[in-house]
Write a structure and sequence with these properties.
Blueprint: H1 5-18, H2 24-33, E1 40-42, H3 49-53, E2 66-69, H4 73-85, E3 90-93, E4 111-114, E5 121-124, E6 129-133, H5 138-147, H6 163-168, H7 176-179, E7 186-192, E8 198-202, H8 207-216, E9 223-230, E10 238-246, H9 250-260, E11 268-275, E12 279-286, H10 290-304, E13 309-315, H11 317-323, E14 342-350, H12 356-366, E15 373-382, E16 403-411, H13 424-440, H14 461-466, H15 470-480
Parallel strand pairs: 2-4, 3-4
Antiparallel strand pairs: 1-2, 5-6, 6-9, 7-8, 7-9, 10-12, 10-13, 11-12, 11-15, 14-16, 15-16
Helix pairs in contact: 1-2, 1-4, 2-4, 8-15, 9-10, 12-13
Cofactor: FAD
Domain FAD-binding PCMH-type: 60-234
Protein name: FAD-binding PCMH-type domain-containing protein
């Protein structure tokens, strides 16, 4: 480093006592400016501050005190000490896709530590363990895995999502029924903790931190700058398919889909999309030939009846990844998002098939969308398989689920700029839809929701996301971050 931490921390501590709160950001920024090398700092006076402070969802427009782009672990450590001395909350950012804008702090006045310079990648071809920097996004990661030996990791479809938040919140993905969720495949991590210490978290080192980060690590315990993740060799043939059904058959198809997961081949992963245009589409990735894929989905189609249309393609794994990335371009290494700029997302995780009331609520809302939306849809992921048989215990508690549902409402379009007035009817419709689904959630079952689709409106959200893991998570939080440096509106609490 290029300066003395001890003296700087004393200066910062003195400033806390001797100055007003308005002077604190200047002190922290001065501290950050002393970090030299390839790291760089964005402040409110920077010309690109507005662009840098935005999340992927323009519904949120928080004002961070600064955005710091470290180049090394030591720079991350230095930045954490700067913020801690000034009592400024820290928000790590890998991709910026937090549903509630928590990658920008979820509140004004945080320090964003953006990992965009941590794009390192390598793979050990003896162990098939990939080393992936915390700033990599999924699309470029898939491209690197493929270019360096045709590997995959069991992660999601959206190519612009950062690997950091995705992996630390669980990471249900295209091959999770075969290989488990992404967090279950993390062999070890490099993490800079709230004291600024650079640590390895694994099954043998800092084991409590390793347990907590895999499932509840998105922004509560430190900055993960590097992952070591078990990668896999896909078969030479991989099949992708879309099966289209009319929404009018919603009850039969939802029942058949949920039941299908219990006996379906683990080489198969499926996602169902239902939307307000009257469509139901089942998207399938099968690790094998077209002929075997057709055999694998036959039990589902026997229960649902013939789809109104289908599109089945046999190719390589990378072809399926590109197909279901839904990009404006087909280059995974340089993905361009085409998402709406304003959205509200929520989730529920089910350990049983939907009951009649739940299915009827879905149909009622999808057939009566509000004015102003650009899209409103449900994504129903088929769980089961290796998702429900983790190799080790972690803070991800949703193993054993049948399906997970993501509820999304979007308004505006890709050209919309920040500052647009929020669509009140869109948000009211979304909230009422979700409230009815919560009320209908099977009696006797504690509500569960997927922490990667975090939602500030969910009652008792900590229990829904972390369940039985929550007491231990609080203990670990108090141990590693007693001053609550890593905090946002739904971070793991101290007590």
């Amino acid at each position: 480093m290029h300066f003395q931490w001890t003296s700087l921390a004393l200066v910062a501590a003195a400033a806390l006592q001797a100055t007003t709160s308005q002077a604190l950001p200047t002190n922290m920024i001065s501290c950050l400016q002393a970090i030299k090398g390839k790291s760089y700092l964005i402040t409110p006076s920077s010309s690109n501050y507005t662009k840098e402070s935005l999340t992927e969802n323009y519904l949120f427009n928080y004002k961070p005190q600064a955005i710091f782009h470290p180049a090394t672990n030591n720079d991350v450590s230095a930045a954490i000490k700067c913020a801690s001395a000034a009592n400024v909350a820290i928000a790590p950012r890998s991709g910026g896709h937090s549903f509630e804008g928590y990658s920008a702090g979820g509140q004004d006045g945080s320090l964003i530590i953006d990992l965009n310079q941590f794009n390192q990648f390598s793979i050990d071809k003896k162990t098939n363990i990939a080393t992936i920097g915390g700033g990599n996004r999924l699309g470029p990661t898939y491209a690197k895995l493929w270019a360096n030996g045709q590997y995959l990791i069991p992660a999601g479809t959206c190519p612009t999502v950062g690997i950091g938040g995705h992996a630390l919140g669980g990471g249900v993905g295209m091959t999770s029924r075969k290989y488990g969720v992404l967090s279950d495949n993390i062999v070890s991590m490099t993490v800079v903790d709230p004291s600024g210490a650079i640590k390895t978290a694994s099954a043998t080192e800092n084991t409590d931190l390793y347990w907590a980060l895999r499932g509840a690590g998105g922004g509560s315990f430190g900055v993960v700058t590097e992952f070591r993740i078990q990668a896999y060799k896909p078969p030479s043939k991989v099949t992708s398919m879309t099966l289209d059904f009319p929404l009018s058959k919603y009850s039969t198809i939802l029942d058949a889909y949920a039941a299908f997961g219990a006996t379906a081949s683990e080489d198969l992963m499926a996602e169902m999309n239902l939307d307000t245009s009257g469509n139901m589409q089942v998207q399938v990735v099968y690790l094998g030939s077209k002929a075997d894929a057709n055999k694998a989905v036959a039990p589902l189609l026997k229960a649902t009846g013939k789809p109104k249309s289908s599109d089945i393609r046999e190719g390589k794994w990378i072809d399926a990844a590109v197909r279901f990335a839904w990009m404006q371009n087909s280059d995974l290494a340089n993905p361009k998002a085409g998402d709406s700029n304003y959205a509200k997302g929520r989730s529920l995780v089910y350990r049983q098939a939907l009951n009649k009331k739940e299915k009827d609520i879905i149909y009622k809302y999808l057939t009566a969308p509000p004015k102003g939306i650009s899209a409103a849809y449900l994504i129903v992921d088929l769980w089961g398989g290796k998702i429900n048989r983790p190799a080790s215990e972690s803070a991800f508690v949703h193993h054993g689920a049948v399906i997970g549902i993501e509820f999304v409402t979007e308004w505006g379009d890709a050209g919309t700029k920040p500052g647009k007035k929020a669509c009140g009817p869109c948000q009211t419709w979304s909230l009422n839809f979700y409230k009815e689904m919560l009320a209908a959630y099977t009696k006797g079952q504690p509500i569960q929701a997927y922490q990667n689709y975090i939602d500030k409106d969910l009652p008792n959200s900590m229990d829904a996301y972390y369940g039985k893991a929550l007491p231990r998570l609080k203990t670990i939080k108090k141990s590693v971050d007693p001053n609550n440096v890593f905090r946002f509106p739904q971070s793991i609490p101290l007590n």
